[in-house]
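User: quick one, sequence for these tokens?
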């Protein structure tokens, strides 16, 4: 087939085209933006908050277990005082907690509690563990962790120091 002048047939134009024009790219970005503007407000963020309660409960249980493990592991150098986890803030809604060596009053670790999560206890803000892993006198026995209708209860068995977390 012989070409006449500089013109191309429509089939040749389609074959030569390798990219998108600026107008096409802008239209796609605009369309995706409109979809996002409509879809994002309809997302259910309450589901995310429900998972925050579970994550916070697991994090606190891990902190309690670390405190107990430190008390057992350091029994030779700290035979009477042990370790404690102390929650800070009002009893109705703690804001953070720290793990302390009770013999040196040194802070071992600390964490902040997500503001969307409510962590509370009935009587004390301390969970103290002795060198055998048992809970010491003056310690609290239970914590409640809640967010968006999901509630967890963390319980410490005093004689053994075992920590249990149950969903209510």
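Assistant:
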């Amino acid at each position: 087939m012989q070409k006449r002048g500089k013109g191309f047939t429509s089939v040749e134009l389609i074959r030569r085209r390798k990219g998108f024009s600026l107008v096409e790219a802008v239209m796609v970005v605009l369309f995706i933006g409109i979809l996002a503007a409509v879809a994002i407000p309809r997302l259910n963020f309450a589901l995310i908050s429900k998972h925050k309660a579970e994550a916070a409960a697991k994090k606190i249980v891990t902190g309690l277990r670390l405190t107990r493990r430190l008390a057992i592991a350091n029994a030779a150098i700290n035979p009477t005082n042990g370790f404690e986890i102390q929650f800070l803030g009002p009893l109705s809604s703690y804001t953070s907690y720290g793990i302390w060596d009770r013999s040196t009053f040194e802070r071992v670790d600390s964490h902040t509690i997500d503001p969307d999560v409510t962590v509370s206890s009935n009587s004390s803000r301390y969970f103290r563990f002795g060198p055998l892993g048992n809970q010491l006198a003056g310690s609290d026995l239970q914590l409640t962790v809640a967010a968006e209708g999901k509630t967890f209860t963390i319980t410490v068995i005093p004689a053994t120091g075992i920590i249990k977390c149950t969903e209510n």
